[in-house]
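Homework-ish question, so no full write-ups if that breaks the rules, but can someone show me the predicted structure for this set?
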Amino acid sequence: MALMTGIEYIESLRELDTQVYLFGRKESNWVDHPIIRPSINCVAATYDLAHEPEHEDLMTATSCLTGRKINRFSHLHMSQGDLIKKVKMQRLLGRKTASCFQRCVGMDAFNAVFSTTYECDQKYGTYYHENFKKFLIDVQDRDLTVDGAMTDPKGDRGKSQGLQSDPDLFLHIVERKPDGIIVRGAKAHQTGSINSHEHLVMPTQAVSEEDAVFAVSFAVPSDAPGLFMIYGRQASDTRKLEPGADIDLGNKKYGGQEALVVFDNVFVPNERIFLCGEHDFAGVLVERFAGYHRQSYGGCKVGVGDVIIGAAALAADYNGAGKASHIKDKLIEMTHLNETLYSCGIACSCEGCPTAAGNYQIDMLLANVCKQNVTRFPYEIVRLAEDIAGGLMVTMPSEIDFKSSVKVPTASDLSVGEWCNKLFAGADGVTTENRMRILRFLENICLGSSAVGYRTESMHGAGSPQAQRIMIARQGDIENKKQLAKDIAGIKD
Amino acid sequence: MALMTGIEYIESLRELDTQVYLFGRKESNWVDHPIIRPSINCVAATYDLAHEPEHEDLMTATSCLTGRKINRFSHLHMSQGDLIKKVKMQRLLGRKTASCFQRCVGMDAFNAVFSTTYECDQKYGTYYHENFKKFLIDVQDRDLTVDGAMTDPKGDRGKSQGLQSDPDLFLHIVERKPDGIIVRGAKAHQTGSINSHEHLVMPTQAVSEEDAVFAVSFAVPSDAPGLFMIYGRQASDTRKLEPGADIDLGNKKYGGQEALVVFDNVFVPNERIFLCGEHDFAGVLVERFAGYHRQSYGGCKVGVGDVIIGAAALAADYNGAGKASHIKDKLIEMTHLNETLYSCGIACSCEGCPTAAGNYQIDMLLANVCKQNVTRFPYEIVRLAEDIAGGLMVTMPSEIDFKSSVKVPTASDLSVGEWCNKLFAGADGVTTENRMRILRFLENICLGSSAVGYRTESMHGAGSPQAQRIMIARQGDIENKKQLAKDIAGIKD
Amino acid sequence: MALMTGIEYIESLRELDTQVYLFGRKESNWVDHPIIRPSINCVAATYDLAHEPEHEDLMTATSCLTGRKINRFSHLHMSQGDLIKKVKMQRLLGRKTASCFQRCVGMDAFNAVFSTTYECDQKYGTYYHENFKKFLIDVQDRDLTVDGAMTDPKGDRGKSQGLQSDPDLFLHIVERKPDGIIVRGAKAHQTGSINSHEHLVMPTQAVSEEDAVFAVSFAVPSDAPGLFMIYGRQASDTRKLEPGADIDLGNKKYGGQEALVVFDNVFVPNERIFLCGEHDFAGVLVERFAGYHRQSYGGCKVGVGDVIIGAAALAADYNGAGKASHIKDKLIEMTHLNETLYSCGIACSCEGCPTAAGNYQIDMLLANVCKQNVTRFPYEIVRLAEDIAGGLMVTMPSEIDFKSSVKVPTASDLSVGEWCNKLFAGADGVTTENRMRILRFLENICLGSSAVGYRTESMHGAGSPQAQRIMIARQGDIENKKQLAKDIAGIKD
Amino acid sequence: MALMTGIEYIESLRELDTQVYLFGRKESNWVDHPIIRPSINCVAATYDLAHEPEHEDLMTATSCLTGRKINRFSHLHMSQGDLIKKVKMQRLLGRKTASCFQRCVGMDAFNAVFSTTYECDQKYGTYYHENFKKFLIDVQDRDLTVDGAMTDPKGDRGKSQGLQSDPDLFLHIVERKPDGIIVRGAKAHQTGSINSHEHLVMPTQAVSEEDAVFAVSFAVPSDAPGLFMIYGRQASDTRKLEPGADIDLGNKKYGGQEALVVFDNVFVPNERIFLCGEHDFAGVLVERFAGYHRQSYGGCKVGVGDVIIGAAALAADYNGAGKASHIKDKLIEMTHLNETLYSCGIACSCEGCPTAAGNYQIDMLLANVCKQNVTRFPYEIVRLAEDIAGGLMVTMPSEIDFKSSVKVPTASDLSVGEWCNKLFAGADGVTTENRMRILRFLENICLGSSAVGYRTESMHGAGSPQAQRIMIARQGDIENKKQLAKDIAGIKD
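A: Not a homework solution, just the prediction itself:
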């Protein structure tokens, strides 16, 4: 079984009977839908790059389960070096797509479920780790994309799972059968769910004993009976539907995707169950997945940041302002912030350590510090990009105007498109179209559909800022720090 | 002649033969176009509020030219109190529209041109001040909206006006005739140009002697022969075209507008000329207009900020998170930043002083400080709003999904809309629709069409950040500060 | 009775029998003590400047109680203009002294006690307002400096007044007598207490009914029996004791002062009592004093900031780096931050309104916003100053080294002083001594004795940052903001 | 030859005839001088910790030159692991001393000179690498502390070396002799110079061909004829001279040191020369040393930060405020910032790569990013510490007051010390002395002698902020980033 190419991956999606709802109705040919396709292209890039010799070292790995060559996105990290390569792979893909390429959630889920099931089996004599290994070998061998699905809709944030007025606001076990379980509920904000072959479901938060039905983890195919998705809309999403859309998209080929994934009494066979009521492992699993995913942001968003910095620099050149000292200083600041994020991604990897199951886990404190910075710096990077770009980024006429041959009946007798191209000319030697292109790219990432991935996802993906602060407090070992201060200040007590 | 109502204003626009191009072709009934109309409603609000007794004090004034009651938007500020009321009026309108209401550029231009023409006439014996007073009395009496048009396309930023490869990149005089002049060029990023009855044109930057043809100021009706506009597109603009669009718009009634205004050999009669080659007054005029407009941002954006703070607080309530201490702290921070902006708006007004012509000018240093803060704090306010709102703001299905009665063929036999309403329920007692509404409002202002006005316009409107820094350096009186330090440090030299 | 001069003020201090403890023992001639004297000089400047014609408008006022000309530091603000002049007077003094000049606490207390006693009398039929007016007329006529004393030691912050293990941790009434009361406790961090003729005591926080003994306000002379002070030490304080100290002091003439003021059973006659158990006015009084004092920081610290900006600019010149673009940009940023603080000081004044008693109160929301910014920006100003100054600011040999004629027995046969002067030379034409002077000034304000006033006092004076945040939350009118958002988002409920 | 203990190290200093000037005269017994000794104790800690088994792995290494066990401070880093251990060793020492322990400059110089001499020899056939290896083996075997001396006084920053009015403002070769060279000039801000056995001198900046006499690197003993030091003074330095000083010192045992090191015609024998006129290697050497040293700050300052966080947490506990949510949040923020710095230190190490000479070099971009953050975050950590500590940190009476038995003649008949202890009591169960101790520790690090090391050294050590920005610009590969943006935006040119 060889690694799939991007095209093979796209074709493989057609073989699934995934149920997708978009703008109020079922979308049969969602694979070719202009709003959805860019996000599929992003996942496809994770396949294609694995075939490029120069990226092979980052994009592929040798499975510790089978010894076979696999895509790194389905790899269990077996060393600090693996953790570091993960981050570098993510930065690479960010640089190539300037988007969320969606396949990380699966990878992060694999590594979290692997170690958690091992420990659960040790404690409770369950069989989840073997179940999971079989599942993962299949994923690796078939080179599948998997949605690591964690976040429940949650309803009233002030109430725990069991106290919600509607139990379906948290995914839960509704029935246990001899051959499996029936589950019900939903996962919200699912990045890349539609583009995944499988869904690997995890609990969304720690679970108390009385709420044990919410402590459930399992995998089902994306087209399992009872499972369907409702597509989330993004800023400027329908530009992709405009005839001949190109420049106004900013990023024509790539994009992100989020959906609500509903489980309306879905059956999970026993061999696909990885947690089933062992409530004390729900929190562990959440924390580990979150940890890996907070590390991820130190790679992917840095790659996107690289493209933004490049685009801002180009915009300045095209404006004829590339040599102004304040412009150069802003590009330095953007670079500085972006590399600080990268440093955090690398550091939590480099300080990783093995779990009882043998795979490696990031340093929890530093992974949370990484993500906390990601909730801040991309916003400042975007702000600086908007500063450099200039107001034209948001006041420019549409691509259709630039291409319009409709004559304006005034003295010059020029067409709308000729006027646009004439008056929005920038530095000598730069075509107005290229200037438009770079400004539309920036518009899209600053306040268009890609802003969803670069900004809001940086804020809330892998947990909202406050979640990281709680972890930083817990991991910060404040008592030890107090003792250091006592020793130096001469306090004995 | 009485103050117009909003409806009268809208009808008055129909009487003009303004030439508007949108998506590549001429738009005849632009007044009712769904993309344009919200911006017209905003201007209409400046008329309607003037009729509400509770707002009369802020919204109206007594003309110093005629003694008649006028809308404050066409007033010459005759005291510090007037300058302060201007800021309060702007905050009021920001609170009512959460948008750019566009009429400030005219007001700021009136005040800048009034004092500059006075001084130009003093020096050169020109007749511009009288010209301008006649024009302004007409504007006041007919209660017109005027586009104060300053920013040229500028082409290559590294080159001055005369060195551009295409002279039309800066608006200039092409011919002087006995009865007037012919001008040619364009004004870019024009906020509310289409919604204006008149255009009051000013130079975009200081002008040297050899470039004197670029030192020109005048007024023409928006439908003057040779004048036309090309509409600028915004993020998510076409949502306004979606059938039944309401919730997904975030702000259904109000919005902003920018356009490219082209002058293709437009004739300006002598009595409408306010500057015509007196190059040394170009810089003065630019600086004054910019100063007034930098003050404006300490009012309008603060009003919008008020709505964002309220929306974020509502979103937290609807999520059931309103009582969390970190949420409360973020709302405090947003309030703190917003009121700091307001303080700057008030302070530069309160420290204002009379010009030679008699109207009042803001304190230049503090007005620039005000705007400089506006290039920063709205971005942080938006970041905090996104933090509080949660990821659903950008992953939520469309309004059409929420309203869809298409059945999903799974166990529960619910429609798409029923699923959406069930699974995106928030705190008890809050309808899912209301939760959607507030999240869509925030989406729109953070990364949709309103982000153009709240973010990018905060950055570049009234001059980009570096322009303020240059003014702060110039106004900061560093030599005097050095002397203070010498006195205290005991340095004699 | 005329306004005192600085010298008369200093002589007037000698007439008091103020009990001062310093370094463990009683200091009789504290007026001439080198550690204390600079703080006295600062207060003296508030007297001297009142005699300079160019500053008369800011420094003096006409008493609303007597119609006589008084120093503005003992004035009741009777208009927004008065509030603004107060801020300008404070900026002026900050510019002249680069220190805390201490007399503001009295002025702020006068205005708070004046309006609070009026309202208390209205409610309870007490006689405090008349008492206070008599006291204030005396202060005005004799041109006295008064310590407005609020902050108690507080003990365990987690406990209210009555629950402290030692009741003396909050100042309280210990006995009521026919002719007065006996009070006991202390006021900590008292700025300028020793340099004051009188102490005007206020409660430190809101008081509940059962703790009514802590709701007490009164005035006593600084040498009242039972009252004494213990001097607080500052960073680098003993440099002032070094023989011939000049350059190393950074600011030879001026400085700040804090002390613990102890009331060990001090008798207060009835006519000097302004609150005595009416617990519901304690919180009111605290809030008003804090409000006025938070406004004050928008003046005094801005003045000090002016000197720091000048000093940093000089340091850059002396280093030969004054023309580097990053240096200029940092000076702009310092100016921007400093003027933002000033804007807040002006705005809360300009938005002030009359109290029931007739004097004017600042806008409470904006005054708290002002102070909140003061807890941040001076730190950044100092950071930028340290950046510009260069490391020499903290690694430079002592003044004694620079002046030493001790020969170093090496080839050049130069003295220690000659080596220092040779090797620490800066730009041509600048004496090494002048370079030293400006660096020592910066050292002193960044991390020496003046850092106490510019940094830590900016943080905690007039209440720590969290106190302002609580007030901002309370004053921010969040419910109204929610309604604005509902109106625009189309939410009806 | 075994590793020295701290005591042996201190005794070894007495054997040198180092010439030290302090307060204008020669200080013979500088080893025991109270102002100097704490800095010696810091260096001694680098010796003592190497003997503790739990720290052996970090504190010692196996020499790649001799195979012998050495102190890591004299080690050549031979792997990424070595670079990481370096950072961890520095954090450890920061945690133990809360000061600058001074031995890093030597270590960083060893690694920079090692690789640079190798490449210089390759190009020019010089013999410097062998010279240096011999020198380093001696250092390793004798376990010496070496001052890596780089920064020249520099005079007028606007002029290059050769254009200064006094050539001695940059250290240079004055004469070449058969057996060596004579050098002249000085090194300023030398951390730990007096406490070093040897001085390893490097150029301070890139050198052009005509200025080749400034391209010189060599080592001489600290007591070489013609070499002497003048001690730099610090804030609050003379507190160390106060009789019985303990609590008021904040950090009684440890501290930092800077001095001016003068070379008045010092002879350097040929075998101790590592660069002598090969001007093109001056810049290389500077960049490498700076790179290593910028990495160092991601370790040492983080360790100090740990102590500050602990101290702030203790101060809050002692104030009875440890449980307030805003306090906890500030401690989280401090931890977050501190760990971000650590992440940068680790990341630039983990991304290190071998030089031609075989030792490992950090990633230059990330090392500069690391240091740039160090010029910011410690200032914010200190600001937050001051916030948490409360104003008492800077208004507290002296230690002498707390211990004074002088009676205050008031009703209670208590001594000054009793009053202090009574009124500055904090939370129950905490002694006032302990509260004082932790506040004095914080005072010392925020605005006392330790602020020199934690703040100003963080700003300027290893190069001022602008130096890092220049390197970030150079290393940021902006052209490649532009290409990424072109690829995605569809720009072909």
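Now go work out the reasoning yourself. Hint: Chain B touches chain A through 99 residues (CB under 8 Å).
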